Amino acid sequence: MAMRVAALYDVHGNVRALEAVLADAGDADAFVFGGDVFWGPWPRETLELVQSLGDRAHFVRGNWERYLLEGKDEWTAEHVPAPLTVCGHTHVQFQVDRIVNPGSVGLPTVHAAAWWAVVDDGDVELRATAYDTVAAADAMRRSGMPEADELADQLLEPYTVERLLEIVG
Known about the structure:
Elements: E1 5-8, H1 15-24, E2 30-33, H2 43-51, E3 57-59, H3 63-69, H4 74-79, E4 85-86, E5 94-96, E6 99-101, E7 114-120, E8 123-129, H5 133-142, H6 148-156, H7 161-168
């Protein structure tokens, strides 16, 4: 079954432009926001509009989201409302105010475990579940998947946050 995906990059808080695009692509099955979504004149309104898409919205963090999380974009932080935003892709588990990344279940950072989060009525609990990563790494190596050895090595000796940041730069 074909899936219609709207790829939306660099919205930069321009809620008016986003409204127009969403009206044009309204029947899309999914919306992928490729970073730099909120920095701009209407961050709160942009966030609210994006949240209205529900589970059809998917995100890749851009440099302005990184600046916001690092506290380098105070203006946007003062204008983004408090609803919980859950993001992913970085494999790094963190919570900064109401922005949460559960981490990676299958390819963790910091130490070998399955990283995830529980959200219960707006409250967040960051979790890490231990499992037999040695057996999983051995099975990965036998899977026949290209680069399986690299993934197995990374599972057994996960990247530090600093190493991951070097890679994704």
